[in-house]
Specification:
Layout: H1 2-31, H2 33-40, H3 42-55, H4 57-70, H5 72-85, H6 87-103, H7 110-119, E1 136-140, E2 155-159, H8 160-166, H9 171-181
Antiparallel strand pairs: 1-2
Helix pairs in contact: 2-3, 3-4
Pfam families: HNH_5 (PF14279)
Domain HNH nuclease: 111-164
GO molecular function, one term: endonuclease activity
């Protein structure tokens, strides 16, 4: 009988605990309805985010950048989701990049590129890491999007990591960014 009484007492405490928890949740919801509506009305939340980005672009960009750095896996997944749900925009982005590359002034030969690799001792121009066939990329010091050319004087060897982080920055801007994050 004692075990049965303990079990019933435990059950009643558990039920009371759940009821109190639900009451607290209801009270919280009632006092924070407007904030909770963002979850109910995602379009309203998106609009609020758009307005924030318009009013505080530098702050919003810094927050987004920090989030991407702190959550690389979630960021990659988010980009993949966006690309999957916006195939037309992705196609336009890739076509623009290909157009710039194709129409940029200048070109280089394999001999010139090999000489450039030897000049940099087969190391990344930015971080100095050893380059191999998996990590080597051609970086445009002055990005094509900013009027750079495909002449060998504008090209340097870079690892994939540095080249993708540099994105459309000049070497000076990229190195300042690296110094700021150290």
């Amino acid at each position: 009988m004692k075990d049965e009484d303990r079990f019933l007492r435990f059950l009643s405490v558990l039920i009371i605990h759940r009821m109190l928890k639900r009451a607290r949740q209801r009270e919280y919801y009632d006092s924070h309805k407007e904030q909770c509506k963002g979850y109910v009305d995602p379009e309203k939340a998106r609009e609020a985010t758009r307005q924030y980005w318009k009013r505080h672009p530098e702050k919003a960009y810094a927050n987004a950048k920090r989030w991407h750095q702190n959550n690389p896996d979630k960021a990659k997944e988010s980009v993949k989701r966006w690309q999957k749900s916006n195939p037309d925009k992705v196609k336009i982005i890739h076509k623009r990049k290909a157009f710039r590359k194709r129409n940029a002034e200048g070109n280089f030969t394999l001999e010139e590129w090999n000489a450039k690799l030897e000049e940099y001792n087969y190391k990344c121009a930015y971080c100095g890491c050893e380059l191999n066939s998996d990590t080597i990329t051609v970086d445009h010091r002055i990005p094509l999007s900013r009027g750079g050319t495909n002449y060998i004087g504008n090209l340097v060897p870079a690892c994939k990591s540095c080249n993708s982080k540099k994105h459309t920055k000049t070497p000076e801007e990229y190195l300042m960014q690296l110094e700021g994050s150290v």
